[in-house]
UniProtKB/TrEMBL annotation:
The keyword Protein transport applies. SUPFAM superfamilies: ARM repeat, Clathrin adaptor appendage domain, Subdomain of clathrin and coatomer appendage domain. The lineage of its organism: Eukaryota, Metazoa, Chordata, Craniata, Vertebrata. Residues 603-696 form the Clathrin adaptor alpha/beta/gamma-adaptin appendage Ig-like subdomain domain. It is found in: Membrane, Coated pit. Residues 579-590 have a biased composition (Low complexity). Residues 568-595 are annotated as: Disordered. This is Clathrin adaptor alpha/beta/gamma-adaptin appendage Ig-like subdomain domain-containing protein. GO terms for cellular component: AP-2 adaptor complex. One of its GO terms (biological process) is protein transport. Belongs to the adaptor complexes large subunit family. Keywords: Coated pit, Endocytosis, Membrane, Protein transport, Transport. Its main location: membrane. It is a peripheral membrane protein.
Amino acid sequence: MCLALHCIANVGSREMAEAFAGEIPRILVAGDTMDSVKQSAALCLLRLYKASPDLVLMGEWTSRVVHLLNDQHMGVVTAAISLITCLSSKNPDEFKTCVSLAVSRLSRIVSSASTDLQDYTYYFVPAPWLSCKLLRLLQCYPPPEDGAVKGRLVECLETILNKAQEPPKSKKVQHSNAKNAILFEAISLIIHYDSEPNLLVRACNQLGQFLQHRETNLRYLALESMCTLASSEFSHEAVKTHIETVINALKTERDVSVRQRAADLLYAMCDRSNAKQIVAEMLSYLETADYSIREEMVLKVAILAEKYAVDYSWYVDTILNLIRIAGDYVSEEVWYRVIQIVINRDDVQGYAAKTVFEALQAPACHENMVKVGGYILGEFGNLIAGDPRSSPLVQFNLLHSKFHLCSVPTRALLLSAYIKFINLFPETKATIQEVLRSDSQIRNSDVELQQRAVEYLKLSSIASTDVLATVLEEMPPFPERESSILAKLKKKKGPGAVSVELEDGKERGELNGAGERGADAAIAASNVSTPSPSADLLGLRSAAPISGSTPSAGSLLVDVFSEAGPTASSASVNDDGFLSSAPPSAASEDPAPPLPESEELLNKFVCKNNGVLFENQLLQIGIKSEYRQNLGRMYLFYGNKTSVQFTKPVEPLVEGGAQVQQVINIECLTDFVDAPLLNIKFRYGGALQNISLKLPVTINKFFQPTEMAAADFFQRWKQLSQPQQEAQKIFKATHGMDTEVLKAKLLGLGTALLENVDPNPENYVCAGVIQTKAQQVGCLLRLEPNAQAQMYRLTLRSSKDTVSQRVCDLLAEQF
């Protein structure tokens, strides 16, 4: 029988699960089954459950499987607990009775002498594998509500911590490994509960002893666990006492992974009392840091400097030092942020101008420093112009000495700084006009530089002083918003790029507006080539403000293969890559009504951005898209599935078996309900094919996730309590109620999934802000599943009633 169970487990196919999933639980809990067979049955069932969880339903066997934790045979308990842990992680409510049994079993092991368990003692440590598994099982649940069970568990954890302080009973490495494995699992459980201040502080002190242990792995694990402890209000102060040890580890550790954990711990333990010390140490370490962790270190220093800056001159010094030490690893978000803060704070502008002027005098100056210097001196150079050492001409000559060493975007920024100088310092006008008039600028091979030079030269020549002052006035303060550096640190990678497997092709786009209120998302088709893997898909790095040439609100129609494409007089691409709208009369034939399945196809893309939108025997349409704030970019791929050419009177032709690509730029002007229509027309075998689909652009695509603490969430929830601000639906589940799938769909919606906010751990709460050009709409979401009744209650609250209702309708279709 054991061999048969081993065979079923090793094959582990869905067919095996269908055939034996009902029989194996019976063997597992039967009273006359031998212990060795029970072990094999538990492990076989675990293998089948991992392969096909929908087929392995415990049902009536649940309580009997849980009671295997009381089995006399330790091997059976060890195998059973692996199965119960896996089942509990998916269905915690069904198996919550295992908590008291697990505590009881753990208590018997921890309090026993090593001789009591004979065959299960490993180098003087009683049943280490079973102890670790029991502690891991308990981490699937909150602290026990029963006072007696909780007291017994706390006693177990105290005993484990006490035993860690005892002298070792053996010098063998196996003894210390087994002992430490139990200790670290116990500390993980203490951190998970985060409710026993005494245990948390003791755990912190125990980990502190490991920080100087000769074993590299123990130092690594101690640093990693202390990072989590640092976030607890009970143990944060205890963690801070080890700051000198951690700083020493950052400087002296030979293993780069341990140094990285030390940097993580410094970041986690930082607060107002030690921010300057920690930032200084991290900056010092950055000069010799391993290249693989420099970018992350830069982001952490930038975040800490901003978060704990009481004196903003210290913040400016820190960021400029950061650029000097690790300029190559300073992302755009970092230097954008320092400029935003300097512009928003009058008290630091003069100091920033003086400091950046001094930094630019270094012989070797990083390009990011030149960018910051060009921007700040262009705005606030007048604040230091009274000093002869930083007179207007000296400032200009200093900036211009860096010009020829910089890339095109930085040169463009410097040209903008020069025209600002003409406004700030009229005495520099002749010198700067001479630079702008030189052949290297006015005849530059780069179109952007040439255009700026020509326009700035003309502006400085013909505009009066008043006009010039109006056009080139100081930048207004930026709106206060969450730092984008923090979001970058969470991702720890750049914006995702669309990987295109299909052939490039040229498409003509056309926009038709209908009078009825519909999708106010501005959809524009443009002939954009496939981006490189590092391309900025949304063009946000260099995009100027969107001009007024975007289409008016309406049910916008993208006519993909229109036989009458837009002419130069009816449509043109503006600087932002958006195509201005063509007149409605441009369409040669009326579009077909949307296909009956359009709404169903649209719902498939509410929580995802990539996939096949439509497919029939002739044509396949694939989509890849990305959204950021109120902008989006969508790639449409048209595949001819036939061997015959799709013919048209004008280009493009789609050869048999070929694929072409179209890029659509999207801007959300205000909230909307109806999705835009996509109309495709082509001739196949002489017959006109006319297909209309709903383009999968829904209001939730413009969500920006928002992290919130529990108190903030419920305070905002109460503020949005008016009836028109709430939309609610109670509906039957149409798919399985799998926890991971639910989380994935809620994250796919675009909101932030907030952990440990709702008092009921079964519920899900989310928060996000819908970004439109007209306004920002904050949204809060609460999803309450009832697994027993297979029902959901979904509640949406937002500052705009139409948004609440639309998001509620969209999301209800996903479950």
